[in-house]
Amino acid sequence: MPSAVVVGGGVAGLVIARELAIGGVAVTVIEASDRLGGKVSRHTVAGIELDAGAESFATRAGTVATLAESLGLAVESPSPDGAWLQASDGRAFPLPKTSLLGIPSIPLAADVIEVVGLAGAFRAQLDELMLGFAASKERNFGKLVRRRMGAAVLERLVAPITLGIHSRHPDELDVDVVAPGLRAMMSRVGSLAHAVRELRAAAPAGSAVSGLGGGIFELVDALASDLRKRGVIVRLSSPVASVDADGVTLASGERVDTDTVVLATALAAPGETTITLATLVLDAPQLDRAPRGTGLLVVPGADGIRAKALTHSSAKWPWLAARLGEHQHVVRLSYNRVSPEGLREQARTDAEKLLGVEIAASSILGFDSVEWAQPATAQPAIAGVTLVGEGAAGTGLAAVIGQARSEAERLLGDLGA
After folding, report:
1. Is the CATH number of domain 96-202 1.10.3110.10?
2. How far apart are CA 134 and CA 148, in angstroms?
3. Segment 331-351 mean pLDDT
4. pTM for the complete prediction?
5. CA-to-CA distance for 275 and 123, rounded, in angstroms?
6. What residues contact residue 118 under an 8 Å CB cut-off, 6+ apart?
């Protein structure tokens, strides 16, 4: 039986370990920390188990849903109420209905004009007059949108969404990673707006994201249980000092030789905190009507607001609302590089401004914050070692899981398993 060592027990590592085990490979997972899951994690706030990391996943290709259902988990769609956008001048608008990552399919639609202004909408409409191949070779997401539809659409619609979803400005993203097929469709149909319409029409009915009944963290529990049943060895609290094509050396000096090595984490030390998630559990009857739908994305520079996004979690997920008492609500805010000192009050005041209702300090039933850091440097390629995870696949569970399964299929072929 061929063997494999997977370094890193995040979702990518657990998925590729499972696929290799199914294919007849003897797998060992080595994780530096004392738990599995990586950025998919849980915490308890006011006695309620909640996601401390990702709380939804992209539905494209059914990648995550297929895995979840194979593990016996229930996939759940969010509320159809939709999200809002907080503009820099303090006004709030429902996000345009027919868009892809904020790119409008109808630039002159009323809900687009409301956000970007008439001049911005007319500039975006010029996309229809360009040839389809204009900017079709541009891999930078921000540059593509700016070239086709102008700065107003980019900064007022697209940037708040990518900053909220990927924690990156569009200028830092690869269009083929965050919007697969968009460039090819644009070349085929002649405009960016038409490409968005075609991709949305081809997508399955319903929301672009889904969740799991009970929380995304249940995916980690289910994967870990499945690995145990398949005989996969999992070693926690085992930091790795180095890897090569023939095995890994632990920080303790122990050597583990194997037929193939998968690196599912960055060996570089974490850099500075890039995102902080602040969760409030509230007793707030004024939120029963979900005044801002499932939450808001915030245009950078919005006056007096430090949060970059707010999710009204109990309005978004029916499973969560069913577990709460009358008038209880869960609100989660995300921040870039914020000090934990005074964060509880900052989150309360930001939530008050964004939701447009008064939220008294006495209404807070529970509060917690979680910090996530990115590696200081990207993990370089190592000869003979397979790389999976965010560094290789991009952000988002759909991308990470899809890439891990593809690499597993390739490795099984190489190993003759």
Report:
1. yes
2. 8
3. 93
4. 0.86
5. 33
6. none
* Three-state DSSP class for residue 345: helix
Q: Is the pLDDT of residue 313 over 70?
A: yes
Contacts of 110 (CB under 8 A, 6+ apart): none
Angle, CA of 138, 58 and 405, to the nearest 5°: 85
**Continuous H helices in 168-326:** 175-178, 182-189, 192-202, 217-229, 313-316, 318-323
What residue spans in the chain does CATH classification 1.10.3110.10 cover? 96-202
Q: Which residue has the tokens 């697209």?
A: 158
What is the rounded average pLDDT of the residues 372-394? Answer: 81
Ranges for all domains in the chain classified under CATH 3.90.660.20: 271-375
Q: How many helices (H) and strands (E) does the chain have?
A: 15, 22
How far apart (Å, rounded) are the C-alpha atoms in residues 140 and 133?
15
pLDDT above 50 for 205:
no
Is the pLDDT higher at 303 or at 271?
303
Overall fold of domain 3-76+211-268+377-415: FAD/NAD(P)-binding domain (3.50.50)
**Where in the sequence of the chain do the CATH 3.50.50.60 domains occur?**
3-76+211-268+377-415
Query: What is the average per-residue pLDDT within 123-143?
Result: 92
Query: Which CATH class name applies to 271-375?
Result: alpha beta
Residue 10 DSSP class: B
In this predicted model, what pLDDT tens digit does every residue of 29-81 receive, in sequence order? Answer: 999 999 999 999 999 999 999 999 999 998 877 899 999 999 999 999 999 88
The CA distance from 167 to 162, in Å, is 6
Burial status of residue 95 (CB atoms within 10 A of its CB: 0-12, 13-18, 19 or more): buried
Residue 283, strand partner residues: 328
pLDDT computed for residue 274 by the predictor: 78
Residue 293 reports pLDDT greater than 90: yes
